[in-house]
Amino acid sequence: MAQVTGRFRTLDDYRTTSTAALWGGTTTIIDFGIPRDAQESPLDAVLNKKRLAAESRCDVALHGSVVSWDETVPWQLEQLAAEGVRSVKMYTTNRGSTMADGDTILKVMREMVRLDGLTYIHAEHDPIIADCTEQHAADGRIGIDHLHSTRPELAEEISVKETLAMAEYTGAPVYFVHQSTPGAVDLVTEARGAARWPTPRRVRTT
């Protein structure tokens, strides 16, 4: 709610969204405190969302997010944990806005292990996505009906495979969001079955 992505802001705010939720019988909303860009810190993004959520008519919980790494991130993640935010979402695409690079993802995973937290990953291989998007734009295929073809299955599967390798290396729990290809789901299923983590439940997908 009230999410800013690039230069766009969602129309719905916490008051309207929570009202709709309550009419549908939902009493808790779980939202994301995602930095608008690398200049907004993970802690500020969550605290800003909490301020906006003050007008909610139902309970609100938040996931955090990290876009870039610096020496303050471990402390910020500790503060988020103290605020009750122990899950952090990162994007492997959306270059120039919400994308986290591999170094950032690996370091955040290690911090999540330390803090007994959970890493959320939106997994798409950014170079492939960017190249497909450029080719579509050059051909004039810029409508929403072409969106799916700028996201080839290979892009998701490569990113999932790389993320699983980092999770195995760090021993971090990881949760993949928006999985959309059989190949990506198979990779997660295989990782679960291989018991590469202390418990197979540490690898999850939606």
Task: Write a structural description.
This protein is an alpha/beta fold and 206 residues long. It has two domains: 65 residues, no CATH class; 125 residues, Alpha-Beta Barrel (TIM Barrel). The protein is 42% helix and 16% strand. The protein has seven helices and eight strands; from the N terminus they run ββαβαβαβαβααβαβ. Strands 3-4-5-6-7-8 form a six-stranded parallel sheet, covered by helices on one side. Helix 4 packs across helix 6. The model has no long low-confidence stretch (mean pLDDT 91).
Number of helices: 7
Q: What's the helical proportion of residues?
A: 40-55%
Overall radius of gyration: 18 Å
Number of domains: 2
Largest sheet: 6 strands, parallel
Beta-strand percentage range: 15-25%
How many angstroms does the end-to-end distance come to? 20 Å
- Run of helices and strands: EEHEHEHEHEHHEHE
CATH superfamily membership of the largest domain: Metal-dependent hydrolases
> Strand order within the widest sheet?
3-4-5-6-7-8
Tell me the CATH topology of the largest domain. TIM Barrel
Ranges with pLDDT <50 over ≥5 residues? Answer: none
- Output the structural class: alpha/beta
